[in-house]
Specification:
The chain is of the alpha+beta class. It contains four helices and six strands, in the order H-H-H-E-E-H-E-E-E-E.
Length: 159
Amino acid sequence: MKIRLLLAVVGLATSFALPTFAQQKDTADPQIAQQIRAAAKKYDEAFSKNDAPAMAALFTDDAVQVAPDGVYYGREAIEKRYAEMAFQQWHCNNHLVRVDQVIAVGNDVCWIGEWTCDCDGNQVKGYLSSVAVRDGDAWKIRISTLSVIPAPAPPAEAK
């Protein structure tokens, strides 16, 4: 229970800090930053094809994803979330990640940015942050946090 609360707090804090960090430059090696952006493009391609197994393959076996709808532990749970919620329930596609910053953290990298997609005919957007680790020749996501930017409320009708 404490771990879930900690992850939720970290995710919330990250979502507030992302706009500030997005204004900074990459601190990772340019080649690594390019590899991370290529991995984000693979994520977009798999998402837009509604390919939950391909998306899950971009995560480590022990990955954790903190999302507005809950915390998901492990690659299998993350795959199930995308298959059941994003694709079957919300009918999401046309996903696009913009990686704003790639930060070197020891042998790992943290990347932050914004995302958009279409769900049930509505554009949804938010912020993301991920910690990626090297797995052979590829970078895999170990921790991912997602936030959703709520749509503005419609104007109140005049009385």
